[in-house]
Amino acid sequence: MYYQTLSDEAIISGFRGGDAGIIREYFYGWCQAGYRIYDQRYQLSGKENLDFMSLAHQYALYLMEHDWKPLEDHSPEVSLKTWLIGGFRYVVLDALKWYRREYGSITFEDYLRSFDPGDDLRLQFSRMVEDVCDHAPLSRQERMIINMLLLRGFKGKEIAAELGMTPSAVSQKYKRLKEDIIVPYFKKNFDMDLDMPEVMDERLRVGEQGSGMRAVLSREASMAGARMASVASESAPMSDTMACEEMDFSIPDIMEQKRTTPERITSLEPNEIFVFGSNLKGMHGGGAAYIAYRKFGAIMGQGVGLQGQSYAIPTMQGGVETIRPYVDEFIQFAKQHPELTFLVTRIGCGIAGFTDDEISPLFAEAHGVENIVLPPGW
Length: 378
What we know:
By secondary structure, the protein is mainly α.
């Protein structure tokens, strides 16, 4: 087809202009290619609101709300197709969160790979591993396996040759060490959320795509997308004959509702503050705290208060009542700084183990403070 010869600029212009052929071939075609990949990885088929049309409509709503600018801003080192599919992955992850109430796709190894080898946080991680070896009841062989795998970058078969073991034995021993000692130690002492945090830095997961791909989808947009998908699925399946000409791509009025904190925050306006759950030690090594440290000025070792474009509220020191004083302190701080807008994430609802119903009442007073933005449902 002639569309295959179009430039990136022409494709994006076709999206903006509502060209049915371009939308069908490039937007829905590329999204469908991504869906096949993510369906194999996350088993999406058959799950409510995780069908292709629901997810593609959610993505379309977001892009149209931003006049397709996230695609226009794509990195020159990344093809438009790869960039678009990469953004679609965030829609998939967002939908999975609402389906399972948690992300389950990020493993401890994924977490390790998120570190830049030259990063000072990598040095901090190395010290944590050394701390595990110093305090956990490990044999000399177990210490060597942890050290060689996590700090020195050896592969399992190389460690097996060094220690006179089979690669399978090394793998089984490391799996036990990871599950019984390493991951619990990190979670207990350093607030490492080794599942998917409520806020995720897209550059950690899609390389150097930059801040243009801001997959910030509200719950309302997800619901609207599902409704659009339901209407579309009744009229026609996803195919080359899909009647894109008849689709209504206008942004629904629901998008104008009161602002809530988006599920993922990858950039801030100059007057915006990222409010995250921390620990009193100020070890910002996981979850939203890690994003605050990497992107928004959080200071390693500072567990409370304003730091850069972020504000820390400790949540790891005990029960809900131990969090209340810090929340009250935050609300008073926000009142004293009306020139700033505070975007509150779902603090305490990750590794700290609390629920929205337990934490949200602490912010009852915040509903009357105009410059505090709360998560959906709070």
